[in-house]
Amino acid sequence: MNDSxxxxxxxxxxxxxxxxxxxxxxxxxxAQDxxxxxxxGYGQAPSxxxxxxxxxxxSYDQxxxxxxxxxxxxxxxxxxxxxIVPDMPDVPAGGGDDDxxxxxxxxxxxxxxxxxxxxxxxxxxPQEPMPTAAPQPTPQPxxxxxxxxxxxxxxxxxxxxxxxxxxxxxxxASLFIVKAVFIGVIAVAVVVGLWExxxxxxERKGIKAPLVPLAVGGAAxxxxxxxxxxxxxxxxxxxxxxxxxxxxxxEPPEGYLKDVTAGVFAAFYVPFLATFVALMLTADDGxxxxxxxxxxxxxxxxxxxxIGWRFGKHKLAPRxxxxxxREGLFGAVSFAMVAGVLCMQFLIDDGTWWxxxxxxxxxxxSATLGDLGESMIKxxxxxxxxxxxxxxxxxxxxxxxxxxxxAPVVWLLLVLFVGSS
Length: 421
Hints:
- Helices cover 51% and strands 2% of the residues.
- The chain is mostly helical and 421 residues long.
- The radius of gyration is 54 Å and the shape is globular.
- The relative contact order is 0.08.
């Protein structure tokens, strides 16, 4: 580097009479020359380092800076950094639109300020990134509305129809060929229903209703009702309840009350109500009475299902059975009343059409209440079906739910309208 360095003090770091010499930028190297680009460019005669350095005449501390590094520690700390002039692109002779000084072809600053060293970089303040425009969301094609799903029956309708037709054939054959066989069919259905009910009670609630006395007593109730009438049915019911109480005593007393209570309830709910079917069979036209009872119950369920599935909108009992609607109840009543008129007119001796209307309406009401009653039990147990024995139907109890409470209703109305024999 040349002897005349940039502002390097010769003394121990004290400021000299800076105001006696030319002000910063008034020496011949910067201010007395023409504007940037009009005279010789930076680095040409006179350039930094070739002409008189800053501080001459008089310089700091009346002396010259000794040769050596231009930037000493105390000089860097006591002087302000010189602003960095950004490099400007060279403009060819003839100039561009941005050349406002009038001279063409002037040299532009490019490269270091001093010939023999790389310029020190001044600390640069971080610049905030230029805000970018938020990306515009790509318009998504609107999804086509999903096709409206058809209503579903919720079960395998084909299997349900097949099982129903098969059971109907067995019942009709046994009913009109040998009545004793039909009594056996009722007894088997009662025992299976008791097994399903007691099994679900133990699984879901831990209630151990004794199955053995219930099964034996239930079958005995059906047979006693057919052989001895209503008195035999009541006696069998009482003995069955007593057998449940005694049978449960063979186990620890914990849970005794809830177990025997559930046992007595099961004895009344399944076999005792089924006994009224056997009581209808004891009449002279007993087979037709039982057939009327079965037809009215099945038609009521079918009407409720058909009308409710097609037109049902208003829930009948949403907390108990969400699938049942008021429209379905109207369908059950209408279908059952029409069937009642036909059955009383053509199947029952001495029956009249208006009796059929009453019986049909009562059957629709009792069948619906019976279905809701079992739905309450299943809601309490937290299950959908009582069993899986019958494909498309569930268990035996899922088919007996509307038949059991309807049996005493039909038996009583037929006795009132046409007698018991």
